[in-house]
Write a structure and sequence with these properties.
Organism: Actinoplanes awajinensis subsp. mycoplanecinus
Strand order of the largest sheet: 4-3-2-1-5
Helix content: 25-40%
Shape: globular
Number of strands: 5
Number of helices: 3
Number of domains: 1
Strand content: 15-25%
Order of helices and strands: HEEEHEHE
Pfam families: TY-Chap3
Distance between the termini: 21 Å
Largest sheet: 5 strands, antiparallel
Protein name: TY-Chap N-terminal domain-containing protein
Structural class: alpha+beta
InterPro entries: TY-Chap_N
Length: 129
């Protein structure tokens, strides 16, 4: 389901987060394997954003884009356990502040770092692992 605007996508995600089940994943993916995703663990959330290792050569992040990821609070890849950019929240239930932070990281990273033109270019997928 495609959102009409970034604000619509943000609102829909904010409404979904409180109802997530353990091991449920929400993935937002754009062309060129640019994505953000989250998984609800038993005690919190883990978010990921695509690292250069998984991007095509002509779509790799520039040093400026990687700086923007760090400025937003993403932690850099740390293989072998963390192959993508990541961010953890180690508490449940999520507060309103935590929910806003998670949604901001997911949506704004696509828009402001990966330079996705609009939410119509984003495929939202949900599944359980």
């Amino acid at each position: 389901m495609s959102a009409a605007s970034w604000e619509d996508l943000t609102a829909r995600l904010r409404a979904r987060l409180p109802g997530l089940q353990t091991m449920e994943v929400i993935s937002l993916k754009a062309a060129g394997n640019r994505y953000t995703q989250l998984i609800q663990r038993p005690t919190g959330l883990t978010l990921e954003a695509t690292a250069n290792e998984f991007l095509p050569p002509d779509g790799r992040l520039t040093p400026e884009q990687e700086k923007r990821l760090r400025d937003k609070g993403w932690l850099p890849p740390d293989p072998p356990g963390r192959n993508n950019w990541w961010y953890d929240i180690d508490r449940l239930p999520l507060s309103d502040v935590d929910t806003a932070r998670v949604v901001d990281l997911m949506v704004c990273t696509l828009r402001d770092v990966y330079l996705v033109a609009g939410p119509a270019d984003v495929t939202e997928r949900s599944f359980t692992v």
